[in-house]
Write a structure and sequence with these properties.
mainly alpha; disordered C terminus
Length: 179
């Protein structure tokens, strides 16, 4: 099963403090056990790379999305946090960028995954679970579709900065500094 595969990957990666409290929902328990300080640290680093070049509204959207990486967050949650109706929220995000808020959520998840691939030696399956992908294959497909790269190619230094540049470019914002 998927949970056993993830637990096996965790053991091989040296993670030995995974406690599953609710056996009935073990996949979410594994994700919750993995989601602590690593994701917060990754979110802070990615936000630092992006925040200087985002509009105020997009900065709030990105910050909220980063706070919920690895959890289920929907566009309606973002709209509610902005105290807007979904349609109004979508229209305003679209006015500020070339992407929809759903695409922004997908990019944020991908940026965190790239950061974790670059900064850790965890298997791709573990990184995928940390950021909320169903399995390693889902992360591989997302990487190939968005940036035409494989996970192994993103383990080099500077990958996160390059990916942030691609994200800003897809938002319609020119990166201020060259990579």
């Amino acid at each position: 099963s998927a949970e056993n595969e993830v637990l096996g990957s965790l053991i091989r990666a040296g993670v030995d403090e995974v406690i599953i409290k609710d056996v009935g929902d073990s996949a979410n328990a594994v994700r919750a056990a993995l989601s602590g300080a690593e994701l917060r640290s990754a979110g802070r680093e990615v936000f630092a790379l992006l925040s200087a070049r985002l509009t105020q509204r997009l900065e709030r959207v990105v910050r909220l999305a980063l706070m919920h990486v690895g959890e289920r967050i929907h566009v309606c949650d973002l709209a509610e946090a902005e105290q807007r109706q979904l349609r109004t929220f979508e229209r305003r995000v679209r006015r500020d960028s070339l992407l929809t808020s759903r695409e922004i959520l997908a990019w944020i998840r991908l940026l965190i995954a790239v950061y974790l691939l670059e900064q850790s030696r965890w298997p791709v399956g573990v990184v995928a679970w940390k950021v909320g992908y169903h399995d390693a294959g889902s992360l591989h497909r997302a990487l190939r579709w968005r940036v035409r790269l494989h996970a192994g190619e993103l383990r080099s230094a500077g990958s996160t900065r390059r990916m942030c540049g691609l994200f800003l470019g897809s938002l319609g914002m020119v990166e201020a500094e060259s990579s």
